[in-house]
Every structure is written in structure tokens, then in C-alpha cells.
Amino acid sequence: MSTFQEKLKKYAEITVKIGLNIQKGQILLINAPIVSAEYVREVAKAAYDAGAKNVHVEWVDEELSKIKYEQAPEESLMHFPSWKAKGYEEMAKDGCAYLAISASNPDLLKGVSAERVAMTRKAQAEAMGSFRSMTRSNQISWCVVSVPTPEWAAKVFPHLSEEKQVPALWESIFACTRATLDDPIKAWEEHSKQLLNKVEFLNSKKYKKLHYRGPGTDLFIELPEKHIWVGGGGTNAKGVPFIPNMPTEEVFTTPLMEGVNGTVSSTKPLILAGNVVDEFSLTFEKGRIIDFQAKEGYDALKQLIETDEGSHFLGEIALVPHHSPISNTNVLFYNTLFDENASNHLAIGNAYPICIEGGTNMNAEELKQNGSNSSLVHVDFMIGSAEMDIDAETADGVIEPLFRNGNWAN
After folding, report:
1. DSSP-assigned states of every residue in 254-310
2. Which range of residues forms the domain containing residue 398?
3. From the Swiss-Prot or TrEMBL record, what is one GO molecular function term (predicted)?
């Protein structure tokens, strides 16, 4: 049986070789919580072994962020340093690869003003708009991964003793990312091909509308005429393939901005800026959220929706079978990267230009004309379950079953 260090090394290697696909002479930019230091060191070793020119790490301490939310003057919450945003942009223009590590305490900001948190996040999103555009349009290779924190592990495995919680979460992460296998690189290549088969099927169909049905959900979503389904990885501006999320089980596209009608209910909690938002529903009319409810985290959800005009609309629809490796663990991760890959999901806010034919070469107005939404935010939330059915309507009005009982109908 592989030791922890062996699996950690494999995890770092697949991050570098499959997730980011680092090329010789490339810069690697990492946004990393301080708790991820051991993993970051392994990533740096793997990156240099792959020929990286430099590994630059931006360290983050969420406890310091909480202190700022609680005690800093309001004017500082509305400011994000331009020098930092420009640094990210310069590295992206130089063709860097970008690794974002998601590792947090799901309940960190419970009781902290949702308005102050939203203010800070909006300022950062505005300042980092150019860099975010480069990643969303796949101009550079980018990847999101996770490592455990003690607080997150305790949330996921409350029944285990404290000393066993973090190791248990590590094992779950290793399993979901295929780091436990003898040849995880080959396994990822095969998995990517399977997702691409679904992408080819959906793109050949060119459905014009989807109808979601499930407990608390009756939702119609129209698709733009030029929509493209994506999954199994992307290709950057230099033609280098990469996989943006590890793990990933989804295929996704963009909805028609003003073509969403009905009500959808969440099936898993959403961790939103250190707050848990749970048992919530959204009601849409002509694409816009006109009503919403939440049993927990209402204020955080309200601040998200009110970020800007685009945050009142959807920017992504993603299909994930209920019987998938992550879902079959029966673990509620309280982390969107994992939970979204165990469930059909939608995203509030910005749409990916790669989901529109020729979208990466369009300006904001052209994307809007093609039905694509624009926003400072992009937040996924889970809606899938074993009780969800999805029907798809073809261009000539034929209704076909797409999902039945949470899984692909074909």
C-alpha cells in the first residue's frame, strides 16, 4: 500500500503534468493557503522537474482575511492593490500556468458581516478582471485543486476522532483525484476521453432547451444557438491541453442569458465566502432571479445575487451523473470543487466564452448578443440528485430523455 508521501507526490505530479501540463520554460503561479505548504513544495519539485522556469507562490492566510473583514476600515475593504493585479496580468501575458488551491474552513466567516465580505470580494473581482478573463477564456492553462484543513476535515468527518479527520480527508481527496492508482496519469487520460465522448454527443445534438424536474425543481433552460458543450479538459492559446478542475466529472455549457424560467432547489450546501448556504431555492423569469429563499445563509446568498446585474442570471449549466466516483463515496465535502463533481449543478454569474462558438475572440457586447452572461462572480451550486430527470428538446421540437433518476438516460 502506498504511503502518504507517495500519494502526495502522485497528486502533485498529476496536478503538474495533467492539470496544468507545464511546459519547458514556463512560469507557474500558485495561489496557496498557508496550510497547503507541504503539497505546494511537492508541486514545485514536480514543476521544476517538468522544466518550469520559475514557481511563484502567493500565500494566503484566511484567518488574516477574517481579521480584516471584522476590523479594517470600510474604505480598505473596497480597495485591492493594483500592483498585485498587474503582476498577475504580466505573468499571464508571459504565458504562465495558474494553480489555485482551495483549502478553507467552511464556517470561518459565520457571524461576520456578509456585506463587508461581499464588498471585499467585489473589489478583488473588479481589480482582477483582466486576469480572470484570461483564465475563463483559456488563454493560459489553469487548474483548481484542494488540500485539507483541520476545520474542513472536522466538518466532513465529525464522527471521527480529531487525529483521524485530516488523514481521512486526504485519503478521500487522493481517491477522487486518482492519486491512489498505480498509473494515475493513464487513468486521467482515459477519464478525459470518456468525458469528451459525452461532449461530442451533446454537441452533435445541438439541443435548444433542457427541462429539469426533481424535488422542488421545475426549471426550463434555453441554450444559445451557438452554444458549445465542454468537458474533459481544455486547450490554452498555445494549443496545450490542460484540465481546469481536479477532480472533474462534468460536461458544461452556457445557458441563454434570458432563457431560464421556473424554480430550482439546491441539493447540497454551498460554501460561500466562509458561510454555509443551505436548503435554498431560486426562481427565474426570463433568465433573471426574481425570488430566492434559504434556510441557512440567506444574507450571504443575497449579497452574491446583488453583486451586479449579471449576478441575477446564470452563467453555466453542468451535467454530472449521480453515479460518479465522487458521488459514490457518499461523502458530503462542503467544498464546491468536490460537491459540484458529484451533482448536476448551475452557476450564478459569469459565463465562459469557450462555451460559445468563436466566443474567445468576441468582445463583451458580442458575447451578450449571443446570449452569454457577464458578471464579476461565478459561483456554482448543486441541484442534482437520484430523483432528477432532464428532458432535452431538439431544434425541431422532439423531446428526448437526457437524464433519468439522476443518471444519463443513454
Report:
1. ---TT-EEEEEE-SS-EEETTEEEEEEEEEEETTEEEEEEEEE-HHHHHHHHTSSGG
2. 205-231+249-408
3. aminopeptidase activity
